[in-house]
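dumping this here before i forget
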Amino acid sequence: MSSYTLLLPNDLLEEISQLANENDVSLDQWLVAAISEKVGAARTERLLRHYAEKADEEQFAQILARVPDVEPLPGDELL
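structure:
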């Protein structure tokens, strides 16, 4: 494991400390979890962008054209 010095504004550090206390975890644990969550979201976004770049819009339109134009089943309506 490595270490990294992180400078945080005092008000942000106080809020993070309070959140860590509320969740019964150390400040380090809370920060690692928060950073891991952000990294996971960035990885997911990168993967979805990769898939989108490979998408064939013409093929997608052809598939959608085969879907019948009918009323949705009860409970499936868009609000």
